[in-house]
């Protein structure tokens, strides 16, 4: 069976090149919140996180696939406010609305100045931190966050990945396996 996804790069760990470099979680969260606020969204969701992550972390972008596939994913993410993703406007990702109640899109006095994380986005960030701690890491990496976003079959980030032709479960498994292998020192050029 032939896979269209490129193999993940080998682990290379040194003082100059850590095992999983990339944007730190604070930078990804900050970028995602700015994007949500610019779009008038009330909450920062997993699609905002994925967008910020792929823009700021080369390793995460490479893990998604070849440059054409990564560009397709980013294309869907860019179009969220002008077409693709408009069906998300009046809902909070991961929330279970009460019967007869719909979450309203941000605006006016209802808009949050900080665009708090949706329940699904908050869960992905918490899971990434927990993943890094289990591995003994001080801080979650962009790849930890990518694994956790791709592993939630109900989140918006997974919907975008699927639309762009990426198998989210396979992506999560491949990246998680690579991170675990790097941590154990089993990978080529491992620590």
From TrEMBL:
Which GO MF term does the entry hold, naming one? peptidase activity
Fetch the InterPro entries from UniProt.
Clp_N_dom_sf
Listed A to Z, the keywords are: Hydrolase, Protease
The domain of life for this entry's organism is Bacteria
Low complexity compositional bias, start-end: 16-31
Q: Tell me a GO biological process for this protein.
A: proteolysis
> What are the boundaries of the region Disordered?
1-43, 93-117
> Which SUPFAM superfamilies does this entry report, sorted A to Z?
Double Clp-N motif
Q: Is Protease among this UniProt entry's keywords?
A: yes
This chain's protein is named Clp protease N-terminal domain-containing protein
Q: In which organism is this protein found?
A: Streptomyces sanyensis
């Amino acid at each position: 069976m032939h896979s269209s996804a490129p193999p993940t790069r080998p682990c290379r760990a040194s003082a100059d090149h850590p095992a999983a470099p990339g944007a730190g979680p604070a930078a990804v969260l900050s970028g995602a919140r700015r994007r949500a606020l610019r779009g008038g969204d009330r909450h920062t969701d997993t699609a905002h996180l994925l967008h910020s992550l792929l823009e700021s972390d080369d390793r995460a972008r490479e893990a998604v696939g070849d440059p054409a596939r990564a560009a397709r994913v980013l294309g869907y993410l860019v179009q969220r406010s002008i077409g693709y993703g408009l069906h998300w406007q009046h809902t909070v990702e991961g929330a279970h609305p009460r019967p007869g109640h719909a979450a309203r899109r941000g605006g006016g006095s209802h808009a949050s100045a900080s665009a708090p994380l949706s329940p699904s986005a908050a869960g992905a960030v918490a899971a990434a931190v927990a993943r890094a701690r289990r591995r003994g890491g001080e801080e979650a990496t962009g790849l930890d966050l990518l694994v956790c976003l791709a592993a939630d079959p109900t989140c918006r980030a997974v919907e975008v990945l699927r639309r762009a032709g990426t198998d989210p479960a396979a992506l999560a498994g491949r990246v998680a396996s690579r991170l675990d292998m790097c941590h154990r020192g089993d990978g080529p050029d491992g620590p």
